[in-house]
Amino acid sequence: MTFYLILIVLYLKIMKRDDIMSYLLKIENLGKSFTLHNLHKHIKSCEGINIELKEAEFIGITGRSGSGKSTILKCIYRTYLPEGGDIWYSSKKFGLINISKATEREIIHLRKYEIGYVSQFLNVMPRTTAKQIVERAVLEMGFDLEYASTQAEKMLLHFELGRDLWDSYPNTFSGGEKLRLNIAKAMVKRPRLLLLDEPTASLDSVSKAKVRVLIQQLKGEGTTMLGIFHDIDFMEGLCDKIYNMEAGELI
Question: What would the pLDDT profile of 69-83 be if each residue is shown by its tens digit?
């Protein structure tokens, strides 16, 4: 009897693994909360989140500010450590890996080679020029400086960051210029999975169109994307599925 139970358990595990591996990313019952010790408060950010993403699929998430949207992306990127649930990712190097329980070394590798993140804010080393920022993103993937320089120039030109800005430091840039540079830095790597946290928040209509063109190009090349947007018009015809976030739960 025990032998048959073991076989059943093994069979169910294999079936579950096969089901998970049919997706590039599968989130199961993800939960995250924060404790504000100075205010003696415990705040639930997200709870019971379930999302399935196949290769080259683009899922959009909408919702009010503070509803927990960004927390989902930060848990996937492991900026936040999830409290509950699993984040299964089909890695090119590691095979099926649970990001919720991955080691720091594994996370560093995934960020460098497989998973990109675009936030509303640009965090870079001081005294690094705009061109160097994009070049370094390519160099850390193992390419030489000549190739990195060529790719950086193409990306900067696409986002209409003028040549006069290439050797300037981003702390002198406008908000829109910083955001375009941030998007260029993430997209130049052509990641397998790209996380977009309000990538068009402070952009004008022309710059939004540039982002849209590149998203469509990446999607056509096989990049899988999960994005947060307030601009519903931007998402129209771009996302394969759209979820709405309310009080930490996906609707």
Answer: 999 999 999 999 999
